[in-house]
Amino acid sequence: MIKDGFIYIAVLFFVAALLINLPVLLKGKTAKKIFNFAPPIVLIYLGLMVLCTLKVWDLKATASAYSALKNPLLYAMLFIMLLRCDMKKIIK
After folding, report:
1. Which of 23, 44, 46, 91 has the fewest C-beta atoms under 10 angstroms from its C-beta?
2. Number of folded domains in the chain?
C-alpha cells in the first residue's frame, strides 16, 4: 500500500504515461477499435479507479498530496484539452 505522497503522484504519472503511449505501442485493427471506443483518457480514469478500488494507496495518507495538486492539475488539463479544439468552429 502506498502511503507517501510523492510515490502516489509518481504512480499516477507512470500509469497515465503508460496508458497514453498504448496506442503507439499497440497497433492493429483490434487496438484501433479499442482506442476508438475508449480513448486513453478514459482508460486512465478507469485504471486509476481500479487501483483505488484495490486499495493500492491509502486515501487518508495521500489526501494532502491529492488536495495540493487537484486544482492546479485540473486547470492545466482543461487548458491542454482545449488546445486541440478548433476555435473557428466553436465560434460559428
Report:
1. 91
2. 1
